[in-house]
Amino acid sequence: MPPSESQNIAEPPALLLEKAQNAEKASVVGPDAWSRIIQKTRAHAEANSEEHQNSMRLLGKKMNELRAKYDLNPFKNVEQQPSTSDDFVVQPKAIIPAQNGIKRKASTQAHIPEDPRAKKPRVQKTQSSQEDISKKAKADAEKQAKCRDAQQKKDDAYKKPMQNVEERADKVEELRRPKDTLKEKPASAMFAEASTTGISPDRTAAQATTAIVAANKPDTTNTIPSNVLPVSESNTDRYVVRAPLPEWYTSISMKGHMMEAMSKKRPPELTSLEALKTCIRQCEDTNSAIQLDKLYDALRDHVHKAEIRLEVNRFLVRKANMLSPEYGLPRIFRAGTDFPWDLKADAYQLYNRWWKNDLNQDILRGIVSNKTGNRTSDRLDETYRKRFSIDAKHYGNGDFVQGQWWPTQLCTVRDGAHGSAQGGIYGEKERGAYSIVLSGGNGYQDVDNGDVIDYSGTPGKNSTPTENTIHLLKSADLGNQIRVVRSAQLNKKNKYRPELGLRYDGLYRVTSYTKTDQETAMYKFRLERCEGQDPIRFEGKAKRPSFYEVKEYERLKDKV
After folding, report:
1. What share of the chain is helix, strand, coil (3-state, %, to 5)?
2. Which of 87-91, 147-151, 165-169, 220-224 shows the highest mean pLDDT?
3. What is the DSSP letter of 515?
4. Contact predicate 363/357, CB 8 Å
5. The pLDDT value given to residue 96
6. What is the mean pLDDT of the chain?
7. Strand 432-438 and strand 482-487: pairing?
8. How far apart are CA 511 and CA 509, in angstroms?
9. Going from the N-terminus, what domains does the chain have, and what CATH number goes with each?
10. Of 498, 523, 518, 499, whose CA–CA distance to 446 is shortest?
11. Would you say 508 and 525 are in contact if contact means Cβ atoms under 8 Å apart?
12. Which burial class, exposed, middle or buried, applies to 227 when counting CB atoms under 10 A from its CB (0-12, 13-18, 19+)?
């Protein structure tokens, strides 16, 4: 028996039917949407049919005939003269270009073709109307020309800086290009090569100029300050915070065994260093003038005590961060601080010694005593000199500060302030005198007025000056700076005389000289103190030697 029609059509499983319905819902395409799609497809097919194309061709042909007969072209030249007297003068509607950022409002009225059979008002053809039309057209043309010129100028103005940028960039590239192969270029010579799209030409040119300046600027990242301090009018730039920190200092880990042990059991020396730093902070924070003077006196006491009596080692200095510009001694003397000038000098002296890892506070460090019978003589310790080698053959202050003090003249040689353990003048034949010591011995008729000194040379023979006198004569020709050290052996009536030992009192120049004896070739030299220096420290709170230096000197003298 053949199967029925209903049996020939297999019904889909319920699962597939459910999936199809879900897919239809997910596609968001319902029956209405399918209907619109079908209608749009039919309209598109009809538009491409041959019948529709023929209708469009006939319509276009008719429009061309109307344009030719009734001059319907709105863009036709308005200055063209009519061919016959029956022609109308059609004035086209002025088309006003939209301004920048402003859109023209479109007309809301539908365009209605003009019926040629309709009655039109005749425009009177007069000479004035023709001239008005011509003038307006010329004005529009001139306006357009001005707009084009203005735009051209803007383009030129933009191109010119861009050309300059390219030229400057080439120069920068030449400056950046090393003569020899380098492993790494300095950061100051780097120039960013970026696109100029969207960047104003002025800003781009400025960036290029900045890059050129940066390329020419020397890299001072790894510069170590010189140990020669200039004599300056300003007290703020006289003391240099050394950079970088010394290796012996940075190599000590704050988590090392010694550092951890000091954290658990604080030695008294560390407590003293912390008290010094606390006093610095109090001086910075106080607003009372009376309290500030007391704090300055206390800080002087801390610094002078640390210089003479405080026994420190490298772990203590590192633990207390005494060389740190932010937390240590540099907070007293760095540029921009308001501490007294003498306190800055003394803090800088202590800072220099610790920075060099010269942590022995003994005022006779580096001096070895030799005792032969009843006579004792001193000499420099060669081990100390090799470790802290300092030469006195240099002009200027070096690392010395106004008022720096030594117990003996040999100690001035140890530190390089003077070059002779006994002589009063030290120098070289071609470079003149480097330093002199004012002691007033051997009947010299020296006159010490502080800033002005009349200093006698040494006696020679047969009208020939001595070597030391020649040094001062050479300095008179050169005009170089000479270090002056005053000794306690000066006449006690001399108010500039230090109480004990020797004191550095700054830089002087030979301004004149006279020969006082022909036979011995004796000369008297006038030395004047260089300007811009701190006062001579012979009185007041700034007086040197300090209380602790005097006590230590007397202790060692009694011990001997």
Report:
1. 45, 10, 45
2. 147-151
3. E
4. no
5. 45
6. 77
7. parallel
8. 6
9. 136-176+186-220 (no CATH), 247-355 (no CATH), 368-559 (2.30.280.10)
10. 523
11. no
12. middle
